[in-house]
Design goal:
The chain contains 17 helices and 16 strands. Strands 8, 9, 10, 12 and 14 form a five-stranded antiparallel β-sheet that branches. A four-stranded antiparallel β-sheet has the order 13-11-15-16, with no helix packed on it. Strands 3-4-5 form a three-stranded antiparallel β-sheet. Strand 1 (75-76) and strand 2 (79-80) form a beta hairpin. It has helices at residues 3-20, 52-70, 104-124, 127-131, 134-150, 153-161, 166-195, 197-205, 212-232, 235-240, 242-245, 247-250, 262-265, 284-287, 308-319, 332-335, 345-365, and strands spanning 75-76, 79-80, 82-85, 90-93, 96-99, 257-260, 327-330, 371-377, 384-386, 389-400, 406-413, 420-422, 428-430, 435-445, 453-461, 466-473. 43% of the residues lie in helices and 18% in strands. By secondary structure, the chain is of the alpha+beta class.
């Protein structure tokens, strides 16, 4: 045998040995499934699962993705449904407009969302991770692209182990090209939440140099998403996301989790084994898990509650004519044959805190005004006397929080009839979400000023809404 032929056969044998070793090892509680024995990264290729939960998750993921893409397109009161106009310090949420002065509401919004996540986790476990987390949803779409190009899980593992050929290069190149395109679309949709779609369309048609800051943002976001799709993947959930590491504190024995009914499944073994449990040890639940764990080893931090193992196990149970539900959604008490307690001290406490937070938000939100008004005395001499009159000068600033222009009129309560106002006789028009500053001059005959005169300024919009400000008319006091 000549040397080239010997080298060819040796290379082929090496490739076949790599392919044979490409099947995933059984998961262990001693280390995460995405790490090989030598500490190197092992890519997880979950098999395709089919069933009621997989279909429901696919529908829910499609709906959430459509909502994410559609919100910048839906106009409400002249603005997108969600538009975070940071440049102009204006934030639009479903027809409501908040300005920078209203950012304190963000405390209630952010803390409220976090608290709701804790509340839901106490009841339903990691339903957020498996059903609504953007990382899970986007990775599901990415894996569909990967299956379309490279085949099923076994085909992808064989392709990983195979030497680089023209076919492998073309497949991998097309896959990463589609990953990049998907990441670019998501990055541009995210940008549209901050600049609006018309502005985004204008930027796309312009040179990157004209909007270099925005271009760098989209480039970096696209690169980060591509890195996540192409390499990081489930590591985000296992290594980076703090939510998974909080599960031991957020859930209890009555929280809904994905679990394995050991009392029914053990001892596991082939179907024909006498006196064996329902589990036939097919490892189908392992092969479909996106984080590569074995749910039969108990509740683990890596489990995201996606229910893929439930569908896989139910399919096997149906085929061998055994009851479904060997792996199912249940509480740990439920798996022990006990009754799940939905109403318990933790839930009662969370409910009370939720109601308290909602009441505080409602109370604070009731103080929101349709406009922000400030009335300050012009610096310098507090008052001027001339020709038998006393003059006070104020600076009125009106910030219109509405998405439509408004004309504001000024009335003064508690003032004598001889008090004369100038500077806003015809009203003060303010553009939508605009600001107007006007000097206001008050004059009063000196003889009518017996003491300091408290005044109440009523700033009234053309539809009757009122904001009140107080001030004092100063001058020489005539006893």
């Amino acid at each position: 045998m000549d040397a080239p032929e010997w080298n060819r056969r040796a290379s082929a044998a090496s490739a076949m040995s790599h392919i044979a070793d490409a099947s995933p090892p059984r998961p262990s509680l001693e280390s995460v499934s995405s790490i090989n024995a030598d500490g190197s990264r092992r890519f997880i290729h979950p098999a395709t699962s089919k069933g009621r939960f997989t279909r429901s998750r696919a529908f829910f993921a499609t709906a959430l993705t459509a909502l994410y893409v559609a919100l910048p397109w839906i106009p409400i009161n002249g603005e997108p449904a969600v538009f975070l106009d940071v440049a102009n310090r204006q934030f639009h949420y479903f027809g409501l407009t908040f300005l920078s002065q209203d950012l304190w509401i963000g405390f209630f919004v952010i803390s409220g969302l976090g608290f709701c996540l804790f509340y839901i986790t106490a009841l339903l476990g990691r339903v957020w991770c498996g059903w609504a987390c953007p990382q899970t949803i986007f990775l599901d779409f990415v894996r569909r692209i990967e299956r379309w190009i490279e085949g099923d899980a076994m085909a992808r593992r064989r392709l990983d182990a195979a030497p680089w050929t023209l076919t492998k290069t073309l497949r991998r190149g097309l896959k990463h090209l589609l990953f990049t395109l998907f990441a670019l679309i998501l990055a541009n949709v995210l940008l549209s939440y901050f600049v609006s779609l018309p502005r985004l369309y204008t930027m796309i048609r312009q040179s990157p140099g004209e909007n270099w800051g925005t271009f760098v943002f989209v480039f970096l976001m696209t690169a980060a998403l591509w890195f996540d799709f192409a390499w990081f993947r489930e590591q985000f959930c296992v290594v980076l996301c703090p939510y998974g590491r909080l599960q031991s504190a957020l859930i209890d024995s009555d929280s809904l989790v994905v679990g394995y009914d050991a009392s029914r499944g053990e001892p596991r073994g082939p179907k024909k084994t006498a006196k064996g449990g329902d589990c036939v040890d097919c490892a189908r639940c392992v092969s479909v898990c996106p984080t590569g764990i074995d749910i039969r080893q108990g509740l683990q931090m890596e489990c995201i509650g996606c229910a893929a193992c439930i569908d896989a196990c139910d399919d096997v149970m149906t085929r061998i004519k055994r009851p479904r539900g060997l792996i199912r959604y249940d509480s740990r008490r439920g798996f022990e044959g006990k009754r799940t307690r939905w109403l318990r001290p933790r839930v009662i406490l969370y409910t009370g805190l939720a109601l308290l937070g909602a009441a505080a938000l409602t109370l604070e939100a009731s103080t929101l005004k349709f406009a922000t008004v400030s009335l300050t005395r012009i610096t310098g001499i507090p008052y001027v006397t001339e020709n038998g009159t006393v003059r006070n000068q104020f600076l009125l600033r009106i910030l219109n929080k509405r998405n439509a222009p408004v004309v504001f009129h000024i009335e003064i309560a508690g003032a004598p009839k001889s008090l004369h106002l100038s500077g806003a006789e015809e009203g003060i028009p303010v553009r939508a979400l605009g600001e107007e500053t006007r000097p206001i001059v008050l004059t009063l005959p000196r003889a009518d000023l017996k003491s300091e005169l408290p005044l109440v300024f009523k700033i009234i919009s053309d539809d009757g809404m009122t904001v009140e400000k107080t001030a004092t008319f100063l001058g020489p006091i005539i006893p």
